[in-house]
Specification:
Length: 151
């Protein structure tokens, strides 16, 4: 029993039986288009355990070696650049330290020449300490032993 042949169809759709009148004809079937024929040929396909061609394997290996070399060269380049920068920083710091030491050495030489000058020492002794220069000197001979002269 089909839907269109029952009273339910009339109750739901409020239409008469579809087999009457213009609606009685079924819609035209769509035309099937011709497709090219597909044939399955057995035995010519690649199996799961079949090996990959040696040329493809060699190309992959060469590509991996080139990538590894590129990576190694990049690491070497960065390492050399960082070592160069560290050396240059160390040299700059050493140069600064040497310049400071040379400046201090120059200042010490000036101070030594100023403080060690005999004229300055004489002026300080005479002016500040009220000392006078010695005019003569006394020489003491200690070569003769006083014990030997007693006997």
């Amino acid at each position: 029993m089909a839907y269109y042949n029952t009273n339910t169809a009339v109750a739901y759709d409020m239409t008469a039986d579809p087999y009457m009148g213009e609606e009685a004809f079924a819609p035209a079937r769509p035309q099937r288009l011709e497709r090219p024929r597909l044939d399955v040929v057995g035995g010519a396909g690649r199996e799961a355990n079949q090996a990959v061609s040696p040329v493809f394997t060699r190309v992959i290996k060469v590509a991996l070696v080139l990538v590894a070399m590129f990576f190694a060269l990049g690491v070497a380049r960065v390492t050399i650049a960082s070592a160069t920068a560290a050396t240059l920083n160390g040299n700059a710091q050493l140069n600064s330290t040497l310049e400071t030491a040379q400046e201090e050495s120059s200042n010490l030489e000036v101070m030594r020449s100023v403080y060690g000058a005999t004229t300055r020492i004489r002026d300080l002794a005479a002016g500040t300490l009220d000392m006078v220069e010695a005019e003569g000197g006394v020489t003491v001979d200690v070569s003769a032993s006083p014990v030997a002269s007693v006997q």
